[in-house]
Amino acid sequence: MNIIVVGTGYVGLVSGACLAEIGHTVTCVDIDQKKIDALKNGKIPIFEPGLETMVMNNVQSGHLRFTTKLAENFADAEVVVIAVGTPSRPDGHADLQYVYAVAEEIGAQITDYTVVVNKSTVPVGTGRAVEDIIRKTYSGEFAVVSCPEFLREGSAVDDFMHPDRIVIGTRNDRAAKVMLDLFAKIKGEKLVTTVESAEIIKYASNAFLATKISFINEIAHLCERAGGDIEEVAYGIGLDQRIGPKFLSAGIGWGGSCFPKDVRALEQIGGLHGYDFRLLKAVIEVNNHQRMHFVEKMKEHFGGSVNGKRIAVLGLAFKGNTDDVRESAAIDIISALVKEGATVSAFDYEAVTNTKQVLADVPVDYAVDPYAAVAGADAVVIATDWPQFKDLDWKRISQTVGTPVVFDGRNMFNPQRMRSEYGFTYYSIGRPSATVA
Ligand SMILES: NC(=O)c1ccc[n+]([C@@H]2O[C@H](COP(=O)([O-])OP(=O)(O)OC[C@H]3O[C@@H](n4cnc5c(N)ncnc54)[C@H](O)[C@@H]3O)[C@@H](O)[C@H]2O)c1
After folding, report:
1. Which of 125, 180, 205, 327 is the most buried (most CB within 10 A)?
2. First CA to last CA across the chain, in angstroms?
3. CATH number of domain containing 221
4. Among 13, 36, 257, 354, which is best to mutate for testing ligand 1, by the most ligand atoms less than 8 A from CB?
5. Domain interval for residue 326
6. Could you tell me which residues are beta bridge partners of residue 3?
7. Residue numbers annotated as active site
8. Which H or E run includes 191?
9. Model confidence pLDDT, tens digit, residues 81-122
């Protein structure tokens, strides 16, 4: 099948590469000339395991190409996928300007039956709006399908190729058939729903996962106050098959390009339709509090202030295996620490460049490796669950730091080991409080 994917960010580039990998001919379009030039020169703008090789192979085999011009291959395309950003507006609503701009462009190009697939995360009703925009300039037959994307950054290629489900939102039989053909080589349940249901499934899925994390973080607070170990508690809860073990990791909360904006947007969508989502308001509040509570723990350790302290922050990305720092807890924590008078040294395996952009006005010493970051520090903060942190030489770190104090925001380590084997004063989330070895 000939396919156009509009937008070559995390979702567009991964979707384009994976659809090419399963045999389709894909043209990826982006308005960002620099991005397209880089892609044409074999440079992948994001860090995503397995993506570079897949892009290279499919460019070489002629299944994948890049352009800034939607018009270029439009006439041959049976399917046009919209995968542009839907960021938060200041009021929390999803900003649909990019989706609507693409719809206008499609309206200007379309001359024959085309299935327009919306992969961007959009409020319920957007599919209809996209249809109306195209209909303004084209009176022939076409379909707008909602096919939300559930991939996770850090495992995006694998998630796209092995999804739990593919949601196909359309009541049009012809369009549903095209979509089932499009994904014929990908296993996983294909669920055909109305456009509206598909749009809601995406937001509801993200909001549910965020709720699960905020919930376990609330229970972690109880563990800290009343005794109890959140790891044991989460394991015990997760054994219940109605609940399941995933997304029950206590820590400094959820972040990233999707959960924060999607939970806020769903809350706003409720309002637009006359419903007050009380639960989602609490989920957001718990998450915001989680980051600042962690900073409070540090202040408490230092007798009420971190002023003048040197804090090493390990991890900047919102989670391990990505370079994405959008709404990363590390960013808020660093900003708060610097505001409180601390000096921050920081290290991340992939996210330093993006952090430098986001924290352009915040003084941070970026270190070339984790050992350089912790040298002479008054405390080490683990802000991202990069698996590599587990393999660091923590004995060496305990001897390099100024004082051996670790604030583990991701519960990555065994408290007993950190205390007795390495001699750290070790703080984590919802586990028995720190004791000096
Ligand atoms: N990032 C994720 O993990 C993820 C997962 C699932 C769903 N989503 C959703 O998918 C959508 C895209 O997210 P993303 O993270 O890939 O965004 P992104 O910001 O990484 O990429 C969006 C791309 O669209 C391009 N673009 C904007 N307007 C354009 C236009 N008129 N024509 C061509 N290109 C245009 C931008 O230049 C950019 O390269 C969002 O709605 C997001 O919520 C994201």
Report:
1. 327
2. 64
3. 3.40.50.720
4. 257
5. 194-437
6. 26, 79
7. 258
8. strand 189-193
9. 999 999 999 999 999 999 999 999 999 999 999 999 999 999
